[in-house]
Design brief:
Distance between the termini: 9 Å
Number of helices: 5
Largest sheet: 6 strands, antiparallel
Low-confidence stretches: none
Structural class: alpha+beta
């Protein structure tokens, strides 16, 4: 079964494999992320001060909050391969935060399959270029090389 999935994925290398819907990053989400990660820096949690003392016009999302949305974007766009029983986040090769996400901005994920490698008789490792775009802005929030392991029936 893995051979069919490998052939299918190989044929998609270099192509866009998914674009998620837009998600609004509200101040409540930023505040919750700050609480959970114990990162209450004022540029994230104090909109009035951030409006006065930063060039952003208000508070901004944590870079790691923006990156963490990748999971939602993948769930929204990815399809299981034939015989796949689970997918595992395998890590990131590179992440660059290019543009801050302001409270109230809408973001979405765009995936381009870069490579796929069979790692074992039951595992395929895929590398995707993930671009998290900000609605209405030319420069994306981030670009990352994201690795995912598809696990298949033995």
């Amino acid at each position: 079964m893995i051979e069919k999935a490998l052939e299918l994925q190989t044929s998609k290398i270099g192509t866009e494999t998914g674009v998620s819907d837009w998600v609004t990053i509200e101040q409540d989400r930023i505040d919750t992320f700050a609480e959970v990660t114990e990162d209450p820096q004022w540029i994230h949690t104090d909109p009035e001060r951030a409006a006065k003392e930063t060039p952003f016009g208000g508070s901004i999302a944590h870079g790691f909050l923006t990156l963490s949305m990748a999971s939602k974007f993948a769930i929204d766009t990815a399809e299981d391969l034939p015989g796949q029983v689970m997918g595992i986040n395998y890590g990131l090769n590179k992440v660059r935060f290019l543009n801050p996400v302001c409270a109230g901005d809408q973001i979405r994920g765009r995936f381009v399959l870069k490579s796929v490698t069979q790692k074992s008789p039951t595992q395929l490792l895929s590398e995707n270029t993930l671009t998290i775009e900000i609605k209405g802005k030319d420069t994306p929030a981030l670009i990352a090389q994201w690795l995912g392991m598809a696990v298949f029936e033995a």
